[in-house]
Design goal:
Blueprint (H helix, E strand, L loop, with lengths): L1 E3 L6 E3 L5 H13 L13 E6 L1 H19 L1 H12 L3 E8 L4 H24 L4 E4 L7 H7 L6 E9 L7
Antiparallel strand pairs: 1-2, 3-4, 4-6, 5-6
Length: 166
């Protein structure tokens, strides 16, 4: 165990999860969402586990979208950073016409995502939540396989350790 002294109170952290156990940890994290209170027959969230080819395509799309705002070098740096992320889960929410009901559903979906993140964290698997403009892009929907008429993307959960690809 490592002792992190940079924290206001020292805390012990177990060693990082091994890549072979990342899939099992992710399944347990998804299972942790089943007790999120919902007012519907089905859970309004959907998790898309993203493979290496999809991650590369999303990273490339993000770089292309950023290039006009930040320049080629910064876009390349963003592409490299996004390509180094070991695990990706795209989180979507059921799409409904009523704005108030959509806000309620999104709240439930974010609660489910938080439970996934906390479950992974409890197993010493780092996470980061991304809500960049890319999640609103139609090409992003195509890459992931999201049905834009039935669901809305609310973010990307990155997980794992940079030196280990999930």
């Amino acid at each position: 165990m490592d002792l992190y002294l940079s924290q206001p109170t020292p805390r012990l952290m177990p060693p990082p999860a091994e890549p072979a156990s990342l899939d099992a940890a992710l399944r347990r994290a998804f299972d942790a969402t089943h007790d999120v209170p919902v007012d519907y027959e089905v859970e309004p969230w959907q998790f898309y586990t993203i493979g290496a080819d999809q991650a590369q395509a999303i990273a490339w799309l993000n770089a292309r979208l950023m290039e006009a705002m930040v320049g080629v070098e910064a876009a390349q740096a963003a592409y490299d950073q996004w390509r180094s992320v070991p695990g990706w889960v795209v989180v979507t929410c059921l799409r409904v016409d009523d704005e108030q009901q959509q806000a309620h559903l999104k709240e439930r979906c974010l609660t489910a995502m938080q439970r996934v993140s906390l479950s992974l964290w409890s197993e010493s698997i780092r996470t980061s939540w991304i809500t960049d403009l890319i999640v609103e892009n139609h090409e992003f929907y195509r890459i992931v396989g999201i049905d834009a008429e039935r669901e809305v993307a609310i973010g990307i959960l990155w997980y794992g350790h940079a030196e280990k690809r999930a």
